[in-house]
Amino acid sequence: MMNFKLKTGKSVTLRQAEMSDYESVNLYLNKIATETIYTQYYPGRSVATPDQFQKDIQNNLYCLARDEEKIIGAVSAKVLEPNHPWKNKICRFGVHVLKAYQNQGLGNQLMVVLEEWAKNRQLHKIEAVVRDENRQALALYIKHGFIIEGFRHDTALIDGVWHGDYDIGKVLD
Ligand SMILES: CC(C)(COP(=O)(O)OP(=O)(O)OC[C@H]1O[C@@H](n2cnc3c(N)ncnc32)[C@H](O)[C@@H]1OP(=O)(O)O)[C@@H](O)C(=O)NCCC(=O)NCCS
Fold first, then answer.
1. How many A from CA of 136 to the centre of ligand 1?
2. Is the model's pTM score more than 0.90?
3. Which residue owns the Cα nearest ligand 1 atom 21?
4. Domain containing residue 72
5. How far is the CA of 168 from the centre of ligand 1 (A)?
6. 55-82 pLDDT, tens digit each
7. How many CB atoms lie within 10 A of CB 147?
């Protein structure tokens, strides 16, 4: 567990998720789903089953940021093809922060946690997809040394409008 101070001076804690966090993570992800169209979550989507959650936290990064007991942000990452000899050094991540806590440096700190985890695992590359108009996330990733590797048109139809995705990636030293 580590402590981190938001730009407002408020102290938050960061630690890897445990099975006992299952209900509160689901509540948090449902809130994220109502606040943004920039993650994979959408309102009404049932989030992971307990079994899936167990797997997600076991071998992967699943770091929760809390203001006291309340989850306010998270970063998760996993190697998508751990048994593939050519692909097992590449991970994919997701990061999110509740609206009320954005622009206070937490996203930045979660990216530091992500990179430390990937380096400790001796991974070679971190990847993600970012929805085209998500300037805030793009700015954060570019600040952390990610580059835009490509653009895919019309990857999601949201409320009648087609959106595209940037592929972003960072090769670790
Ligand atoms: C992306 C996200 C995780 C960033 O978290 P955060 O806690 O706000 O991040 P930080 O406060 O550390 O940094 C945000 C940076 O974006 C910048 N920013 C904010 N709005 C911006 C905009 N419209 N255009 C460009 N940059 C912007 C801020 O100035 C800040 O940069 P700085 O550190 O140089 O001042 C958060 O906005 C979020 O959860 N968004 C919704 C979900 C999402 O998009 N997740 C990523 C999916 S790929």
1. 4
2. yes
3. 136
4. 2-171
5. 15
6. 999 989 999 999 999 999 999 999 999 9
7. 11
| Residue 45 in this model has a pLDDT that exceeds 90 | no
User: What distance in Å separates the CA atoms of residue 103 and residue 164, rounded to the nearest whole number?
Assistant: 24
The one-character DSSP state at 104 is S
- Report DSSP state, residue 48: -
Instruction: Work out the pLDDT band at 48, boundaries 50, 70, 90.
Output: confident
CATH number for the domain that contains residue 153? 3.40.630.30
What does the buried/exposed string (b/e) look like for 60-90 if buried means 16 or more CB atoms within 10 Å of the residue's CB? bbbbbbbbeeebbbbbbbbbeeeeeeeeebb
Q: Quick check: 37 and 131 in contact, CB under 8 A?
A: yes
Number of domains in the chain: 1
Does residue 46 carry a pLDDT above 80?
Answer: no
